[in-house]
Structures are given as structure tokens and as C-alpha cells.
Amino acid sequence: MVLIILAACSFESMSRSLQDLSMAKRHEQWMARIGRVYKDASEKAQRLKIFTENVEYIEAFNKAGHGFWLGLNEFTDQTPDEFSKCVIAPEEEEQTGASSPSN
């Protein structure tokens, strides 16, 4: 019985490692397609973590059948806050005419 439990734990650990490896490969392919380059290995590791979380969200959302699909794009390695600051906030400024004081 103990061997079965150990084997199951080992399989789960190995499965997770393969998923991580697979996600790293998907991230590399995405980087090549988007043209993304990071300044160092630390940033790349952080962006892989964010990318993984976003891909898992996208896949879960799509499986739920909401009537439309989410997909990967140039923002997949950004947090929601980063996305908001670089995409949504500038558009709101443009629409409202708000801008930084020039003097």
C-alpha cells in the first residue's frame, strides 16, 4: 500500500515537472512568435510564472464555454495591473483628454 502511495506521489511530481517543462517550452515558443526578450534570467523566470498563471486562467476560462474564447497575445506575460497601466490607463487618458501638465 505504501508503495502505491509513493508511486502515485512520484507520478504526480513527475507529471507536474513535465507540465512545467511543457509550459517553459510554450513560453519559449510564445517569446519567439511575439519577439519578446528579457533583460536577464531572473526577469525571464518571473515572466514565465506570470505567463503560466495567465495560460492556466485562459485554458480554464475556455473550457467553461462562455460563448467566446480567450487566447495568447503580446500581454500574456503581464500581470493584470501591468496590463491596465500600459493599455487601459493610456486609452482612458486619451478618451477623457486628461494628460500630464506640460509646464
From TrEMBL:
It comes from the Eukaryota. This is Uncharacterized protein.
